[in-house]
Amino acid sequence: MPYYWVMTTDAHITADQIAAKEATRPHYSKLEDLQGLVVAAAQAALGIHLLRAAGLVTGGTAGAALILSYITGFSFGVVFFVINIPFYAFAYYARGAGFALKSLVTVTLVSLMAEALKPVLHVAEIHPAVAAVLFGISAGVGLLGLFRHKGSLGGVSIVAVILQDKFGFRAGWTQLIHDLCLFVIASFILAPPLVLYSLLGALVLNFIVAMNHRRDWYIAE
Length: 221
Prior knowledge:
- This protein has helices spanning about 5-10, 15-25, 30-55, 60-70, 75-85, 85-95, 95-120, 130-150, 155-165, 170-190, 190-210.
- The mean pLDDT is about 85.
- It has one domain.
- It is mainly alpha-helical.
């Protein structure tokens, strides 16, 4: 899922500043982290469920999984889980074992929850615009929860962080380039109005994150 604003604006916070805050602020317990990841994954899965019901896409690895599921007929949960597997090595390299484990847990939860919602939450009809807006809100809140608990939905966002750390190329731009490519591909398999509604969902998601996420505002991590 796209969140260009936070990945770009957080770049000005240096590693030394983060380390200084880490030394003084309280930290979440393992149980608190787990419940945070579960709630965040549920919000993301609900957003994806609504997006899928309207035949829309989004950015990030979730968007790639949706496109592949539309093309191949495989379930989103299976595709999303499988295409994220190679990125756990990058997560370990970028942020260590804790970040890689949280990424694995979150991706697994979203994959399972997205499939679990299909038989119990039937969406017979939903206007694409409504689906896009509700997706943006729900997934945006889910991403905020992940950020609070240092989780990740894996995928290209991890590679983007590595490129930023090693070469100074801002992560938000890497994510944006990737997502533009996804929307170009989507334009070949979706009707033009659906592509536009998909873009609306991405805009709402990024607006939610932009209005509510600041790493230097957080009291606990």
